[in-house]
Amino acid sequence: MNRGLRTAIVLAVALVAALGASFVAFMAMQRLSAQSSTPDTVPVVVAVRDVPMGTLLTTDHVKVMPWPTNSQVQGALGRVEDALDRGTILGLAVNEPVTEAKLAAKGIGSGLSPTITPGMRAISIKVNEVVGVAGFVVPGSRVDVLVTIETPGATTRSSMTRVVVSNVQVLTAGTRIDQDKAQAEGKPIAASVVTLLVLPEDAERIALAQVEGQVTLTLRNPTDTAPTPTPGARLASLLGTQTDNAPSAPTAPAPRVRPRRLVAPPPAAPPAPKAYTVETIRGAKRTEEIVK
Protein backbone atom coordinates (compact mmCIF):
# COMPACT_ATOMS: atom_id res chain seq x y z
CA MET A 1 0.00 0.00 0.00
CA ASN A 2 1.50 3.25 -1.05
CA ARG A 3 1.97 6.16 1.29
CA GLY A 4 -0.85 8.36 -0.19
CA LEU A 5 -3.51 5.68 0.20
CA ARG A 6 -2.44 5.04 3.77
CA THR A 7 -2.73 8.73 4.56
CA ALA A 8 -6.21 8.93 3.03
CA ILE A 9 -7.42 5.97 5.10
CA VAL A 10 -6.12 7.53 8.31
CA LEU A 11 -7.82 10.82 7.53
CA ALA A 12 -11.11 9.07 6.75
CA VAL A 13 -11.01 7.14 10.02
CA ALA A 14 -10.20 10.30 11.95
CA LEU A 15 -13.09 12.14 10.26
CA VAL A 16 -15.56 9.35 11.07
CA ALA A 17 -14.37 9.31 14.68
CA ALA A 18 -14.75 13.08 14.94
CA LEU A 19 -18.26 12.95 13.49
CA GLY A 20 -19.23 10.19 15.91
CA ALA A 21 -17.88 12.14 18.87
CA SER A 22 -19.72 15.26 17.75
CA PHE A 23 -22.99 13.32 17.42
CA VAL A 24 -22.59 11.81 20.88
CA ALA A 25 -21.85 15.23 22.36
CA PHE A 26 -24.85 16.75 20.54
CA MET A 27 -27.22 14.08 21.84
CA ALA A 28 -25.92 14.52 25.40
CA MET A 29 -26.43 18.28 25.24
CA GLN A 30 -29.98 17.79 23.87
CA ARG A 31 -30.75 15.42 26.71
CA LEU A 32 -29.42 17.84 29.30
CA SER A 33 -31.32 20.74 27.72
CA ALA A 34 -34.57 18.77 27.73
CA GLN A 35 -34.10 17.82 31.38
CA SER A 36 -33.36 21.40 32.39
CA SER A 37 -36.35 22.82 30.47
CA THR A 38 -38.84 20.32 31.90
CA PRO A 39 -39.84 21.49 35.42
CA ASP A 40 -40.43 19.10 38.27
CA THR A 41 -44.08 18.12 38.70
CA VAL A 42 -46.30 16.81 41.47
CA PRO A 43 -49.63 14.98 41.22
CA VAL A 44 -52.62 17.28 41.68
CA VAL A 45 -56.34 16.45 41.66
CA VAL A 46 -58.25 18.53 39.08
CA ALA A 47 -61.84 18.68 37.87
CA VAL A 48 -62.65 16.65 34.78
CA ARG A 49 -65.46 19.07 33.83
CA ASP A 50 -67.35 22.03 35.27
CA VAL A 51 -68.68 21.02 38.69
CA PRO A 52 -71.49 23.12 40.24
CA MET A 53 -71.49 24.12 43.90
CA GLY A 54 -73.00 21.55 46.24
CA THR A 55 -71.98 18.50 44.14
CA LEU A 56 -70.86 15.29 45.86
CA LEU A 57 -67.59 14.39 44.10
CA THR A 58 -67.10 10.96 42.53
CA THR A 59 -64.51 9.47 40.19
CA ASP A 60 -66.50 10.94 37.28
CA HIS A 61 -65.74 14.48 38.49
CA VAL A 62 -62.00 14.44 39.28
CA LYS A 63 -58.69 13.02 38.06
CA VAL A 64 -54.96 13.33 38.82
CA MET A 65 -52.58 15.15 36.49
CA PRO A 66 -48.97 16.40 36.83
CA TRP A 67 -48.67 19.99 38.02
CA PRO A 68 -45.47 22.12 37.91
CA THR A 69 -43.94 22.56 41.35
CA ASN A 70 -42.95 26.15 40.58
CA SER A 71 -46.64 27.08 40.23
CA GLN A 72 -48.13 24.86 42.89
CA VAL A 73 -51.63 25.70 44.20
CA GLN A 74 -51.88 26.09 47.97
CA GLY A 75 -54.07 23.43 49.57
CA ALA A 76 -54.33 21.32 46.40
CA LEU A 77 -55.12 17.63 46.85
CA GLY A 78 -52.71 15.01 45.58
CA ARG A 79 -54.92 11.91 45.66
CA VAL A 80 -58.34 11.25 44.20
CA GLU A 81 -59.32 9.44 47.41
CA ASP A 82 -58.98 12.70 49.34
CA ALA A 83 -61.70 14.34 47.22
CA LEU A 84 -64.24 11.52 46.89
CA ASP A 85 -67.57 11.72 48.75
CA ARG A 86 -67.07 15.38 49.66
CA GLY A 87 -69.40 18.21 48.65
CA THR A 88 -68.15 21.26 46.79
CA ILE A 89 -68.51 24.56 48.63
CA LEU A 90 -67.62 26.51 45.49
CA GLY A 91 -68.02 25.63 41.83
CA LEU A 92 -65.07 24.07 39.97
CA ALA A 93 -64.03 24.74 36.37
CA VAL A 94 -62.59 22.11 34.05
CA ASN A 95 -58.91 21.31 34.86
CA GLU A 96 -59.09 23.50 37.98
CA PRO A 97 -57.13 22.14 40.97
CA VAL A 98 -59.33 20.83 43.78
CA THR A 99 -58.34 22.43 47.09
CA GLU A 100 -59.41 21.90 50.69
CA ALA A 101 -60.97 25.37 50.78
CA LYS A 102 -63.44 24.39 48.06
CA LEU A 103 -64.63 21.16 49.66
CA ALA A 104 -66.76 20.38 52.69
CA ALA A 105 -65.52 18.00 55.35
CA LYS A 106 -66.15 14.32 54.88
CA GLY A 107 -69.42 13.07 56.32
CA ILE A 108 -71.25 16.40 55.97
CA GLY A 109 -72.62 15.46 52.57
CA SER A 110 -73.50 17.65 49.64
CA GLY A 111 -76.15 20.20 48.82
CA LEU A 112 -76.60 23.70 50.16
CA SER A 113 -75.91 23.15 53.88
CA PRO A 114 -72.09 22.69 53.64
CA THR A 115 -71.81 25.92 51.63
CA ILE A 116 -73.23 28.07 54.46
CA THR A 117 -70.48 29.97 56.28
CA PRO A 118 -70.50 29.50 60.09
CA GLY A 119 -72.50 32.30 61.71
CA MET A 120 -74.52 32.95 58.54
CA ARG A 121 -77.97 31.79 57.42
CA ALA A 122 -79.54 30.91 54.06
CA ILE A 123 -82.98 32.36 53.31
CA SER A 124 -85.03 31.99 50.13
CA ILE A 125 -87.29 34.62 48.62
CA LYS A 126 -89.85 34.30 45.87
CA VAL A 127 -88.93 36.21 42.72
CA ASN A 128 -90.05 36.66 39.13
CA GLU A 129 -88.38 38.08 36.02
CA VAL A 130 -88.70 41.62 37.40
CA VAL A 131 -87.68 40.90 40.99
CA GLY A 132 -84.81 38.69 39.82
CA VAL A 133 -83.42 41.40 37.49
CA ALA A 134 -84.47 39.56 34.31
CA GLY A 135 -82.68 36.37 35.35
CA PHE A 136 -79.26 37.96 35.84
CA VAL A 137 -79.31 37.26 39.59
CA VAL A 138 -77.13 34.15 39.44
CA PRO A 139 -75.16 32.24 42.11
CA GLY A 140 -72.22 34.30 43.32
CA SER A 141 -73.68 37.71 42.42
CA ARG A 142 -74.27 40.46 45.01
CA VAL A 143 -77.63 42.18 45.50
CA ASP A 144 -79.49 44.68 47.67
CA VAL A 145 -82.88 43.71 49.11
CA LEU A 146 -85.60 46.38 48.92
CA VAL A 147 -89.10 46.33 50.38
CA THR A 148 -92.14 48.36 49.38
CA ILE A 149 -94.58 48.66 52.25
CA GLU A 150 -97.51 50.73 53.44
CA THR A 151 -96.54 53.23 56.09
CA PRO A 152 -98.15 52.05 59.35
CA GLY A 153 -100.46 54.45 61.18
CA ALA A 154 -101.01 56.77 58.20
CA THR A 155 -104.53 58.21 57.80
CA THR A 156 -104.12 58.41 54.00
CA ARG A 157 -102.46 55.97 51.59
CA SER A 158 -98.70 56.34 52.03
CA SER A 159 -96.22 53.79 50.65
CA MET A 160 -92.47 53.67 51.08
CA THR A 161 -89.61 51.73 49.44
CA ARG A 162 -86.31 51.28 51.23
CA VAL A 163 -83.21 49.06 51.28
CA VAL A 164 -83.51 46.64 54.19
CA VAL A 165 -80.34 44.57 53.59
CA SER A 166 -77.32 45.63 51.54
CA ASN A 167 -74.58 43.72 49.67
CA VAL A 168 -75.95 40.19 50.02
CA GLN A 169 -74.42 37.14 48.32
CA VAL A 170 -76.66 34.94 46.16
CA LEU A 171 -76.18 31.25 46.96
CA THR A 172 -78.56 29.70 44.45
CA ALA A 173 -81.02 30.85 41.83
CA GLY A 174 -83.80 28.47 40.88
CA THR A 175 -83.37 24.71 40.90
CA ARG A 176 -80.33 22.71 39.85
CA ILE A 177 -82.10 21.86 36.58
CA ASP A 178 -82.68 25.55 35.87
CA GLN A 179 -79.02 26.38 36.53
CA ASP A 180 -77.58 23.54 34.45
CA LYS A 181 -79.84 24.34 31.52
CA ALA A 182 -79.10 28.06 31.62
CA GLN A 183 -75.34 27.51 31.87
CA ALA A 184 -75.38 25.04 28.99
CA GLU A 185 -77.31 27.45 26.77
CA GLY A 186 -75.51 30.56 28.01
CA LYS A 187 -78.76 32.23 29.01
CA PRO A 188 -79.95 34.02 32.18
CA ILE A 189 -81.50 31.83 34.88
CA ALA A 190 -85.30 32.18 34.87
CA ALA A 191 -85.68 31.43 38.56
CA SER A 192 -88.74 31.54 40.79
CA VAL A 193 -86.76 31.33 44.04
CA VAL A 194 -83.45 32.93 45.01
CA THR A 195 -81.51 31.87 48.11
CA LEU A 196 -79.40 34.49 49.89
CA LEU A 197 -76.57 34.20 52.43
CA VAL A 198 -77.25 36.67 55.26
CA LEU A 199 -76.67 37.31 58.94
CA PRO A 200 -79.36 36.00 61.34
CA GLU A 201 -80.69 39.52 62.04
CA ASP A 202 -80.86 40.25 58.31
CA ALA A 203 -82.81 37.02 57.80
CA GLU A 204 -85.40 38.34 60.26
CA ARG A 205 -85.68 41.63 58.36
CA ILE A 206 -86.10 39.87 55.01
CA ALA A 207 -88.71 37.47 56.41
CA LEU A 208 -90.72 40.38 57.83
CA ALA A 209 -90.39 42.29 54.55
CA GLN A 210 -91.81 39.33 52.61
CA VAL A 211 -94.82 39.10 54.92
CA GLU A 212 -95.63 42.80 55.23
CA GLY A 213 -94.59 44.15 51.81
CA GLN A 214 -93.21 43.41 48.36
CA VAL A 215 -89.53 42.46 48.03
CA THR A 216 -87.34 43.53 45.09
CA LEU A 217 -83.69 42.79 44.31
CA THR A 218 -81.16 45.19 42.77
CA LEU A 219 -77.97 43.82 41.20
CA ARG A 220 -74.62 45.19 42.40
CA ASN A 221 -71.10 45.30 40.98
CA PRO A 222 -69.09 42.63 42.85
CA THR A 223 -66.31 45.15 43.54
CA ASP A 224 -68.76 47.63 45.09
CA THR A 225 -68.88 46.60 48.74
CA ALA A 226 -70.01 49.91 50.25
CA PRO A 227 -73.35 49.90 52.13
CA THR A 228 -76.43 51.61 50.69
CA PRO A 229 -77.46 54.28 53.23
CA THR A 230 -80.53 55.74 51.52
CA PRO A 231 -83.43 57.47 53.32
CA GLY A 232 -85.96 55.60 51.19
CA ALA A 233 -88.54 56.86 48.71
CA ARG A 234 -92.08 57.84 49.71
CA LEU A 235 -95.19 58.00 47.58
CA ALA A 236 -95.68 61.71 48.33
CA SER A 237 -92.18 62.61 47.15
CA LEU A 238 -92.59 60.43 44.05
CA LEU A 239 -95.74 62.34 43.04
CA GLY A 240 -94.10 65.68 43.78
CA THR A 241 -96.60 66.68 46.45
CA GLN A 242 -94.05 66.61 49.20
CA THR A 243 -90.34 66.19 49.43
CA ASP A 244 -88.66 64.13 52.06
CA ASN A 245 -86.38 67.03 52.98
CA ALA A 246 -89.11 69.73 52.95
CA PRO A 247 -89.32 71.69 56.20
CA SER A 248 -92.37 71.09 58.28
CA ALA A 249 -95.10 73.77 58.55
CA PRO A 250 -94.40 76.37 61.24
CA THR A 251 -96.36 75.90 64.39
CA ALA A 252 -97.96 78.73 66.38
CA PRO A 253 -95.86 79.76 69.33
CA ALA A 254 -97.15 78.70 72.67
CA PRO A 255 -98.74 81.55 74.69
CA ARG A 256 -96.38 83.14 77.12
CA VAL A 257 -97.36 82.53 80.67
CA ARG A 258 -96.22 85.16 83.13
CA PRO A 259 -95.10 83.86 86.46
CA ARG A 260 -97.48 84.53 89.29
CA ARG A 261 -96.19 86.72 92.07
CA LEU A 262 -96.68 85.51 95.57
CA VAL A 263 -98.94 87.98 97.45
CA ALA A 264 -99.17 87.90 101.23
CA PRO A 265 -102.69 87.12 102.43
CA PRO A 266 -104.56 89.99 104.12
CA PRO A 267 -104.41 90.04 107.90
CA ALA A 268 -107.18 88.28 109.69
CA ALA A 269 -110.01 90.54 111.10
CA PRO A 270 -109.81 91.09 114.84
CA PRO A 271 -112.38 89.17 116.85
CA ALA A 272 -115.60 91.00 117.64
CA PRO A 273 -115.79 92.42 121.19
CA LYS A 274 -117.63 90.34 123.68
CA ALA A 275 -121.12 91.68 124.49
CA TYR A 276 -122.41 92.02 128.07
CA THR A 277 -126.06 92.14 129.25
CA VAL A 278 -126.90 94.79 131.93
CA GLU A 279 -130.14 94.41 133.81
CA THR A 280 -131.69 97.70 135.18
CA ILE A 281 -134.58 97.84 137.72
CA ARG A 282 -136.30 101.14 138.13
CA GLY A 283 -139.17 100.89 140.60
CA ALA A 284 -141.44 98.24 139.31
CA LYS A 285 -139.92 98.43 135.78
CA ARG A 286 -137.18 96.01 134.77
CA THR A 287 -135.09 96.47 131.64
CA GLU A 288 -132.06 94.76 130.06
CA GLU A 289 -129.42 96.44 127.90
CA ILE A 290 -126.60 94.90 125.91
CA VAL A 291 -123.32 96.71 126.33
CA LYS A 292 -120.40 95.95 123.96
Automatic annotation (TrEMBL):
UniProt-annotated stretches for the region Disordered: 241-292
Pro residues composition bias: residue spans: 264-273
Biased composition regions of type Low complexity, renumbered to the chain: 246-255
Domain SAF: 42-104
Signal peptide location: none
Pfam families: RcpC (PF16976)
InterPro entries linked to this entry: Pilus_assmbl_Flp-typ_CpaB, RcpC_dom, SAF
Official protein name in the record: Flp pilus assembly protein CpaB
Organism in which the protein naturally occurs: Luteitalea pratensis
